[in-house]
Amino acid sequence: MLRGNWHCVDDPSSIAINRNMATALFGSEDPVGKVLKINNKKNLKVSGVFEDFAYNSEFKGVNYIIPWAYYVADNNWVKNSETEWDNNSFQIYAQLQKNADVNKVGAKVKGRLLGHERADKPGVLLHPMAKWHLYDEFKQGINTGGSIQFVWMFGVIGLFVLLLACINFMNLSTARSEKRAKEVGIRKAVGSQRKQLIFQFLCESVLIAFIAFALSILLAQLALPWFNKIADKKMGILWGNGLFWLFAIGFTIFTGVISGSYPALYLSSFNSVKVLKGTFKAGRFASIPRKVLVVLQFSVSVALIIGTVVVYTQIQYAKNRPVGYSKDGLITINMNTPDLYGKYGTLRTDLINSGGAIAMAESSSPTTSVWSNQSSFDWKGKDPNFNPTFGVIAVTHDFGKAIGWQFVGGRDFSRDYPSDSAAFVLNEAAVKYIGFKNPVGETIKYHDSNPKNCRVIGVVKDMVMESPFAHAKPTIFLMDYEWANVITVKLNTNISTQAALSKVEAVFKRYNPGSPFEYTFNDADYAKKFGDEERISSLASFFAAFAVFISCLGLFGLASFTAEQRTKEIGVRKVLGASVINVWGLLSKDFVLLVFISFFIAIPVASYTMNKWLLGYDYHTGISVWIFAATAGAALLITIATVSFQAIKAALSNPVKSLRTE
Q1: For helices 288-319 and 531-565, what crossing angle results, to 10°?
Q2: Which whole-number Å values give the CA distances from 661 to 248, 254, 656, in the listed order?
Q3: 500 membership: H or E segment, kind and range
Q4: How far apart are alpha carbons 583 and 461 in whole angstroms?
Q5: What is the pLDDT of residue 35?
Q6: CA 549, CA 567: separation in Å to the nearest integer?
Q7: How many helices (H) and strands (E) does the chain have?
Q8: 654 or 248: which carries more pLDDT confidence?
Q9: Which pLDDT score is estimated for 660?
Q10: 241: which of 98, 213, 383, 452 is 20 to 30 A away, CA to CA?
């Protein structure tokens, strides 16, 4: 609290606002004691100012807090809900005693609702605030993870990318071992012990790692704005955090030791006598570890490419999913003041007469969400132990016309049938859930505040109102003008969107002059549902590209070294008539073979991992063979392109220069 204290919300006529809202409304003036009108209904006195919630907080969009007592007094349905045990509209926040065991307390309260005539036998679940964001996925009341899987996924990918860089260091250090063989021989001859040589080579590796760390800090600082935009975060380097620097330095030393360990052990093992006599040879099997490391590098790269392509195809698969209605030209306006209630007929007429809209309807949820879920339904043949929960949406007569409902049976709500006030329209998922074979004409008993028997008059195709990656929720649509609190308008597509919006805004200004005209495009709201997956795709693509780039750097270095080692051999072959193509094939075939081996390692691993990832979505694509074929072809082309530069360069060299010393 910046001003006042939390007791300020004990008064039903008070309001607490955040710093940003206080500045926007009152500038540098003290807001405490000022009066605000909320929802164009009632004046409330500002009695406190609280600090803005952080961007990474679940409450980042909370600008003000009003007393619960005001909410109850202002909404009859909230007042009724205080004594109705079958309403799931609210969250309960509880502060446990210090050092209390969450699991033990949770076990005590879990069955509290069972004794209050709840047919669906729910349980109360305690979920610690510290786990809200990363552990937000539940199945059958059990936490099964959540966003933490992406933290682990990108952490593992980051380690793999770092491993690729370490492999490059190992490969190039050991490949150029003959360059340092005499140094090792002389050091051993003058008394150096092997452990001293190992320590020296490790120190060199750690020094290189620290230079890389300094450069990485600079690159990270430069890349953070771009990364934050893609990841939708506001992160920064923790310059003043000692723990961060301790971890970073420790990790840098660890990286230096890991990458330098194999070269240090390999270089320090040379026989000084053979080296100094000039009879030292690396041996026919000396290149095997390098080949194994190259295979490992490309296995990781190929697996990352496959994973990226699968994520992309899953997003496209969901985007191409039929949504069961027409999103084009639809806008949603929340009925945020009493001025818009009870005006349905005249408002609809004025909107259509303005020329800006061709249809308008009201509902209790927008087309991109289901705000109410109930289990208060019975029907003939229902199992007494079966208590399913349905999405319930109240609509007005013209809802179907406005959004373009797609009927598979029966009819829409109609003004020609007064009995439709006690009628239901079901989606296909609800019909399947209930088990009706011929749903139109069936009766469902609705246990709301006024229990009644409702007849099913129509069945519509499943509408994708929530996650595009999940099955459509079983949903029941009923006609209720009082419950509706969302307006859906179908804009006139025969004029420009801007012109249509101007005409619609003018009408709303007449009916609701005290509020700004705020709307959202339904297709834009729907597109936001892909935000997390698209961010994952973008980050995965970046990591995959980075992994391939690092692998190619190592391959380029090895190809350069191989061409250098075989300079005289290439010269002899050219003198004896070998063509450029022959020499290119000679130098490229070994690397191409290694990449082929990496395919057989990466494809099963990537297939298993991505299949498991896809199974996390109810609505998902499969992994086609073309993904593996395209990835293999792309990796092969990249390999050939990387190696070919050095191979062709060596093939085009003048053999006289390489052989004249013989």
Answers
A1: 150
A2: 51, 45, 9
A3: helix 497-511
A4: 64
A5: 94
A6: 27
A7: 20, 18
A8: 248
A9: 65
A10: 98
> Which residues does residue 14 pair with via DSSP β-bridges, in sequence order?
45
Give just the sign of the alpha carbon dihedral 618, 619, 624, 628.
negative
Quote the CA–CA distance of 462 and 464 in Å, as a whole number.
6
Long-range contacts formed by 630-633: CB under 8 A, 24+ apart: 630/309, 631/302, 631/305, 631/306, 631/309, 632/302, 632/599, 632/603
The one-letter amino acid at 407: F
pTM to 2 decimals?
Answer: 0.79
Neighbours of 32 (CB within 10 A): 18
Give the separation between CA 662 and CA 644, rounded to whole angstroms: 28
Quote the pLDDT of residue 208: 93
Nearest to 658 by CA among 572, 557, 561, 579: 572
Q: How far is residue 472's CA from residue 464's CA, in Å, rounded to a whole number? A: 6
Q: Is the dihedral of CA 390, 393, 394, 396 positive or negative?
A: negative
pLDDT at residue 15 in the model? 93
| 613 has pLDDT over 90 | no
Residue with tokens 């027409």, as numbered in its chain = 326
- 172 alpha carbon, distance to own chain's centre: 37
Beta strands 390-395 and 475-479, pairing class: parallel
Phi and psi angles of residue 118, each rounded to the nearest 5 degrees, phi first: -90, 115
DSSP assignment string, 539-557? HHHHHHHHHHHHHHHHHHH
The mean predicted confidence, pLDDT, of the chain is 86
Is residue 233 within 8 Å of 224, Cβ to Cβ?
Answer: no
Query: When comparing pLDDT for 580 and 156, which is higher?
Result: 156
Q: How far apart are CA 604 and CA 581, in angstroms?
A: 34
pLDDT of residue 212: 93
Reduce the DSSP state of residue 591 to 3 states and report it: helix
The answer to whether 638 touches 550, Cβ cutoff 8 Å, is: no
Taking only the tens place, the pLDDT of each residue in 309-341 is 998 899 899 989 999 999 889 999 998 888 888
Q: Are 282 and 223 in contact (CB under 8 A)?
A: no
pLDDT band at 387 (very low <50, low <70, confident <90, very high): confident
Q: What whole-number distance in Å separates Cα of residue 89 and Cα of residue 87?
A: 6
Q: What 3-state DSSP class applies to 228?
A: helix
Find the largest Cα–Cα distance for the chain.
107
Displacement of CA 163 from its chain's centroid (Å): 25
For the chain, what's the residue count? 662
Token reading at 174: 């050991």
Residues ≥6 apart with Cβ < 8 Å to 647: 559, 563, 583, 584, 587, 588
**Sign of the dihedral through C-alpha 286, 287, 288, 290:** positive
